[in-house]
Amino acid sequence: MAITLELTPEIEARLIAQAKAQGMSAEDFLKAAIENLLSAEPQVYRVGTALVVQSTPIGNLETSVEQMRAERLSGLIADYESPV
């Protein structure tokens, strides 16, 4: 399937720069980005009368959560090890 997109010059430049940074062509970069986006779609299902939405964190959110966990753990360890 072929799809044509009209991009602003700014978006086109960012796309090309990101693709080059990954060592990819713009076309391959877009294909990978679309595949990642589609694989991150939430799954919706019912459990009894509840509607459950299951999704995977993407990019910065996942990194932020891991960073917060690490900071909390460091704080707990510091509190535990410090004399009262």
Give the topology, please.
Blueprint: H1 9-21, H2 26-39, E1 43-47, E2 50-54, H3 59-81
Helix pairs in contact: 1-2
Question: Mind explaining what this structure looks like?
Answer:
With 84 residues, this protein is mostly helical. It folds into two domains: 8-39; 42-84. The protein is built from three helices and two strands, in the order H-H-E-E-H. Strands 1-2 form a two-stranded antiparallel sheet. It is flat. It starts with 8 loop residues before the first helix and ends with a helix.
Explain briefly what this protein structure is.
This protein has helices at 9-21, 26-39, 59-81; strands spanning 43-47, 50-54.
Rounded to the nearest angstrom, the radius of gyration is 21 Å
Helical stretch tally: 3
Q: State the domain count.
A: 2
Poorly predicted segments: none
The proportion of residues forming helix, as a percent range, comes to 55-70%
Strand order of the largest sheet: 1-2
The secondary structure category is mainly alpha
Overall body shape: flat
SSE topology string:
HHEEH
The total count of strands amounts to 2
Main beta sheet, described? Answer: 2 strands, antiparallel
Our measurement of the CA-to-CA distance between the termini, rounded to an integer number of angstroms, reads 67 Å
Beta strand %: 5-15%
Mean pLDDT: 81
Write a concise keyword list for the protein shown above.
flat; two-stranded antiparallel sheet; 84 residues; 3 helices; single chain; mainly alpha
